């Protein structure tokens, strides 16, 4: 890998203005910190391979973030913010070189109150969850990468995850209370956004502000039992998932439905899951296990794996096999596989899910994650795709959209072309104010490039 050439930049002069801040210039290290898991997509592999920054800065205070911002503005150098780099769309890959601002040392948990926490962006989700649970609370939702992912990275590049069946997605009102943001103006400053104003930077890939502090809500901590339930056919498993999602009296955190042969990719679970099974991976509050048994019987399911919350807290959680980690496990067996991200319409009979399951067969292996959208349990899918060509992938996406499914395209690094599908005038207006030179993660926001 070679860093993108930026003409007329005096890197020695810029570095001298970062006195007191950890700087990484070793090419191998810089290249490593310029990547995420965009390799899930063969399309993005072709577009992003070899893209790397020129140096990495690791601030430990907000004042140091301001110092980095000021230096980049002065020298007109691009700045790309990263957390742990667990994203999948090249969110933190620098397209035009420059400075990588690594937030992982901004990792202080400022305070935890009933139902609310204040943290720096580099705090790992697992670390926050552990401390919050000591006070009887937990994170509302987390990605399958929660052991390594950071809070700031999740807000900047994520959308939902384990817990979304109860609390919806990050963009839903109430799932992010406040942020502090450093600007890239001639004289960088700190802006606090509260309430609905947080949407100015929520899921913006760090294109319009550097988050230095967040207030996020917590949920009551439950003792989460983990179960795998198998079914003779996929649609029975899917309808069980819908019924569990609709069951308001059953407290749940995860409803993951995998069609055969997906479970065969889970090496650590092969001894537990019978061959050729369709299964549900569940996290349900222990206090709800008895009524859950009735629902399992109603759909003819068979429990092949069950752990109490205490047992599940040791070793590998079932969460590690769900959401984007399902794709990770599948690709560890067959690296030619890729994936889609699909939101099916609200329909209790799951007709479109059934149609797609039969229409594509094992070319597009069905993997559902139920989440809450506008108060209703909806099947989202992270289908595993047997990739052949980019044109065929586009055909698969096009067919889904023509049939009424929403595709959050994971094969693009452009913010608006992924899950948003439209330009966000609020985020664009905020970028125009706080990043007038367009230095923050350039090339990712279509609205900036198309503005008049």
TrEMBL record:
InterPro entries: FAD-bd_PCMH (IPR016166), FAD-bd_PCMH-like_sf (IPR036318), FAD-bd_PCMH_sub2 (IPR016169), FAD-linked_Oxase-like_C (IPR016164), Oxid_FAD_bind_N (IPR006094). Gene3D superfamilies: 3.30.465.10. Keywords: FAD, Flavoprotein. The keyword Flavoprotein applies. Residues 48-221 form the FAD-binding PCMH-type domain. SUPFAM superfamilies: FAD-binding/transporter-associated domain-like, FAD-linked oxidases, C-terminal domain. PANTHER family: D-2-HYDROXYGLUTARATE DEHYDROGENASE (PTHR11748:SF119), D-LACTATE DEHYDROGENASE (PTHR11748). This is FAD-binding oxidoreductase. It comes from Funiculus sociatus GB2-A5.
